[in-house]
Structure prediction request, 591 residues.
Amino acid sequence: MTGADALAATLLAEMQSAGAVPVAADILQPAETLLDLYGEDIRARAYVTHDPDLGEMMLRPDFTVPVVQAHMRIGAEPARYCYAGPVFRKQTGGRAREYLQVGYEIFARDDPARADAEVFALFARLLAPYALRPVTGDIGILKAAVAGLSTSDLRKTALLRHIWHPKRFRALLERMGGKGPLAEARADLIARLRATPVAAQIAEAGQLVGLRSEAEIAARVERLIADAETPPIPQAEVAALEGLLALKSPASDALAQMRAMGWDALAPALDRLEARLDALASAGIDPATLPFEASFGRTTMEYYDGFVFGFLPARDDLPPVATGGRYDALTAVLGQGQAIPAVGGVIRPELLEALA
Amino acid sequence: MSLKLGVPSKGRLMEKTFEWFAARGVQMARTGEAREYAGAVDGVSGVELVLLSASEIPRELAAGRIHLGVTGSDLVRETLADWQAQVWELAPMGFGHADLIIAVPKSWVDVETLDDLDAVAAAFRTEHGFRLRIATKYHRLVRDYLRAHGVADYQLVDSQGATEGTIRNLTAEAVADITSTGETLRANHLKILRDAPVHCSQATLFAARGADWTQARAVHGLADKLGLSLPADLG
Prediction:
């Protein structure tokens, strides 16, 4: 048994003492579910193989999907699960391709703030012997901010879809504010689309090839023209959203700053943050010193939609030792109609071992 | 041991490569029978010519079995993971130009840019229940490009040839392929997105980071002839 294996066993035992039931997951997972969830990018990160009967399969890149699926099949509520085992990720250079993850997940409908705090406090306790920097964030606040913009639902949906792609999010926001190269390109396109009826333009383009129908093209043209008549998102709102995205402060202070923005649409999400901070304080975590970064989790954790957290090593070039968060929407996608609020996280024992 | 230089074994790419070296005082020729893949180098000593398929040259460079190699910059980026860790790019050679582009049906009058393609991908997934398919053989390059630009809700489907035909055959909605003139695209009722190409490829002289350079001192004589400055950590 390696040091990391022993560490994983210890962590798993601690999680069981905290009330979690150990679960197992297949290493081979159907690729389709993961691709639908994560998109094509997962191919660059996960090992894909082919089974003559089952089709495309992946070596599990994480436990979240199989654990959620297992819960949906058999789960009693509320439930706490833990697991330990290898996951597989394609990497370049010297980074590990196969490494252990030890995880803890809570599926519970009541008191999400308390469940968030329970996971974070457990991780903080297990990781206390190591010199790590905790970070927290809240994707739910970003979603509320987008939903609160004075603009069309179409634009809000487009922005929400790209919360996890900061570069495209910024470009879209700029275009919807009526500025930048995308706005200019869009203006040219709209002028052309307005000049001639769609059917005539398609006819002029020659043969219609492919699965996307003339009706689909016409429908988007209609949406584009309607969108062109939507006023730009006010610059003050764009600036407020950018300010929010840049916010980094101890959690209590971050909450006060966001309250001070006077942004009504944020209120329910900020109430949830406040409840979480209270629950964290009850669990022995001081919100006055706990770091909060509004954009944390935007680049790496695509399925989290509320509370997010990480425990980072002092060295910037090392990956996070532990990450986690709330993923209520994911359970709805995987549950095919059923959904249950869920929060959890994983620890990487090999990274801990390297720090010891 | 001599310096092993891999060059494309046939066609215009081979001829252009020979011309490029000849213009710099290094003569290359295939030797033996027309079908025999052997070659000779004049004008510089200690250089051994290795004739290879252009598509195998990236792999041979990565393995360090050849010191230098001429191939398309697209092939190196597509074939080698983290290519910059495996090869040095010594000189773009000014021929074999081809752009890797993304094309969609010309009848998509609402699509001109990646911004549009991304929006269409979202609507397409809702309408058809699966992600918009882009046919290509350049998976790594295209995926990196689309990730860098934050395009979501697409899938890549493999196409090793006749890629432009996949849309008509309903096996893809868009294509990512190499084009030099755009003739084939036009003939298949496709148009290129206005954004910068995925990659502008040309024939390029590469050096293998992992090759044994201690016995390949001839590289300095060759570099002098070619007017190249070598990376400091080579040999």
Notes: Chain A is about 50% helix and 20% strand. The radius of gyration of chain A is 23 Å.
